[in-house]
Amino acid sequence: MKKTKKHIVVQNEPGGINLKQLYFSVYNNKYWFLLFAGIGLAGGALYTFFVPQKYNVLTSVLVKTDNSQATLTTVQVQNQDNKKNNSVQDQVGVLSSYTLNLQTLQNLGWNVSWARKNLLTTTDLFKDTPFIADTLPGTRQVKSVPLVITPVSNTQYTVKCDAVQEQYGRKHKINFEETGYFGKPFKNDYFNFTLLKAPGYVISDGDSFTLTFNDLNQLAKSYQEELKITPGDEGSDLITIELASREPERAIDYLRELVNVYIKFGLTEKNRRAANTVRFIDNQIAGISDSLQATGNTVSDFKANNNAIDINQQSTAIVNDLNKSRGDIAAAKMQLDYYSNLKRYVNSATAMKGMVAPSVVGITDASLNSLVAKLTELFHRREVLSYTATDQSPEIISLNQEISYTQKTISENLNNLISNAQLQLQSLNSQESRIISAKTVLPKTEQNLNKIKRKFDFNNDLYSYLLQKRSEAQIAEASRDPDAQVIDQASFGTATLKGFGTAVKLLIGMVLGLLLPLIYLTGRLLFKNELKYVTDIKEQLQPAIIGNILHNKFDNELPVITYPHSEITESFRSLRISIQYLLKDLPHKVISVHSSIAGEGKTFVSSNLAAILAINNTRVLLIDADLRQPRTQQIFKLQNAPGLSDYLKGTAVFNEIIKPSHIKGLHVVTSGEKPDYPSELLANHRLEGFITEAKKHFEYIIFNNSPMGIVKDGMMVVPHSDMNLFLLRMNKSSVDQLYYINELLNEGVIKNVVVALNNVTDESQGMVGQKGHGYYNDDRLLKLN
Q1: Position 603 confidence tier, pLDDT thresholds 50, 70, 90
Q2: Beta carbons of 359 and 83 less than 8 angstroms apart
Q3: Could you tell me where the DSSP H helices lie in 346-478?
C-alpha cells in the first residue's frame, strides 16, 4: 500500500519479509533460539511421559452373499433363504447401530471403570482393578461421576466426590467426603455399593484411585462415534472396523465382542424362520399321527370281525385310483389354503415372518417361491435399515417402493393360482365321484374294507410326506452358517501406533520451540514501525545519508576523546570527512543538529562531532540551543549560566558566554537560564548578530537544537545554517520521523538537509558475526587519561 503526503510517495506498509534481514535477526538472537529449542524438547518429553500413546486396532469381516452349505438339492427351504443378496452398506449400518454397541457393552459387563490417580494424569486399570465394586440389582448409582477412593488402612477407605452431574438439562452438584469399610455396604444419597479387595493386587501407601459407574447408554453412543467402519472397494464384500484407544487391550476386547454380537444378530433372524417351518410341520404331524393310529386300528378290527380276504386285482386298481384322487384333493386343498393365507398376509411384515416357504406345502411354482423369498428379504432389509435411517430417508423410501411393487406382483400371481387351484379341485372332485361310482360293483364287505384302508393309506402317505419335510427343515437349520466371517481377528497384531513416536514428538517439540521466536521476529519485521535496517531507510529517505554513527558500547558520552581507536570514533571521523567535503567552499560553517523526537541522540552527536572537528586543529564553537532541556553543560562539566538565553535577552555579552572546554580548539556556549518563551527568544535579531560575531573567531559553529517534531525552536536557527543535519536513531526513531524529514524537504521548509544515522549496529547494517569490521577491534581500544 502506498501512502501519499503532499505529493511525496513513500512505502508505508511492509511488502513482505526481507529474508536477509530475517537471517540477521535470527543470528543475533541465536541464544534465544537455543533456549526455546530446549524448552520445546522438554515440552515434548513431558507430553510423551504424561499423555499415553494412542493405538488403532483393526478387525475385518467378510459379508457372505450366498451362504448355502448343504449338499442336499432337495432342501428347498434353505435354497430360498440363501437367495438373499446382502447389501454391504446395510451391514455397515448394522455394525454402527446403537443397539449392537449397547449389547456389546452389556455382554462385556463394563458397568464400572477403575483408574489410578497420578501426579498430573490418571492411568486406566483395565483388567487390573485394585478393588471389586459389588452392587445389588436395583440399587441406585449416579452414573459418569468419578469417585476418588483412597485406602486408609486394611479395613478402611475414604470416598471423595466433587463433581457436577447434568441430567435432563439441569445441573446438580455432588460434593461429599465419607469413610467406608471394605466388605461392608457404602450408602449415601447417591451411591450404594460394597467394595472388596481384588486378590493379588498390591496397594502402596499414598495410592489413590477413581471409580466410575458407567452409563452404558452414553458409552454406547461414544463408541458409535469412535468406530470407523469402512466398506471395501466397489464389488467387494469386505468390511474393515477400526477403533482408536489409549488402551489397545480394551479396544481388542470391544471389537471382538462387537463382531460376535453382529454375527449372532444375523443368525437369530435365520433361525427364527427355520423354527417357524419346523413348528408348522410338527403341528401337522401331531394331527396326522392321531388319525393314522385310529385308522390303523379300524382296519385291523374290521378284518378280524369280517374274515375279509384280499381284494382282487380290479378292486385293488379302483382303490388305488381312489386313494390317489383323494391324495391329490388333499394336496390341492392345502395349496388353496396356503394361497388364501398368503394373499391375506402379504401386506403385513409381521405376519410374513410366520409364513413358511411355498415349497414346504408342495408348491413348486418357481415364480411364487422366488417372489415370497424376495418379499421376506425386503422386509428384513427394511427392519435392519430402520436402526440407522428414518422413514423419510431415500433408502427407506426406495425400499418401500420395491416392497409395494413385489406385493402387487405376488397378489396378481395369487389371483391366477387361486383360480387354477379351484378349477383343479373341481376336476379332482369329479374324478373322485366317477371312481366311487365304479367301485359300487365291489362286494359290500370289500367296499367297506377298501373305504377304511383308503383312509389309512391317505394318512400314512401324508405322515411320511411331513416327516420328510421336517427332516429337510432340520438339515437346513443344522447346516446354516452366519452371514459374516471374521477375516482378521482384533489382536495386538492388528494394532498400529496412531500419531508419532517418541523421537518425532521430541522433534516436533523442538521445532515448535524454535517457531516461537521465529514467529516473533517475523512479526516484528512484518509490522515494524521502528527503523531497524539501514537498507530500508536508504530506500525510503529522500535526503542523503552522510554518516552512520555506530552504537556506543561505552559508559562515556565523549568516546571520540576517551576511546580514539574505537569503532564509534571512526564513524565520527567518517561523518567529519563528509561534512568537510560538503562545506569545503565555505570559510565559516554553521551546522544545525536536529532531531524529530527526544532521545535520538542530538546532544551526544553534536558534542562528539564538535570534539572530532576540534582535534583536527580546527576552532569549533558548540552552542546548546535547546533552551528547554539542555544537557551539553553536563557532558563538558560547565556552568549553565550565563549562556545563549542570557545573551539573547541582553543580560550578557559575547565573551561572557564563550566557555573553553577541556578539548583544545573547542569552546562551548551553554543554554543559559531557562527562558519563559524559548521560540520567541530565538527569533530575536540578536541571534543573527551572535552568529556573525562567532564566525570571526571560529571555523565551525554547531547548534544543538530542540526536537523539531515536538517544538519549533530549531526552525529559528535554520535560516542561519549552512547544513541542517537531522538524526535518525536505529531501533528508536520510527518511519513517521522518516516521513517528517521527507515532508520538510519536499515542502521547502528547510534547505541543505542531510541525515546521519545514530546507534547503528552490525545487525542494522546487515553484518553477522563481524567484530570490528576486520580492523577496529575492541581489544585494541586505548583509553586516554
Answers
A1: very high
A2: no
A3: 349-354, 366-385, 394-438, 444-478
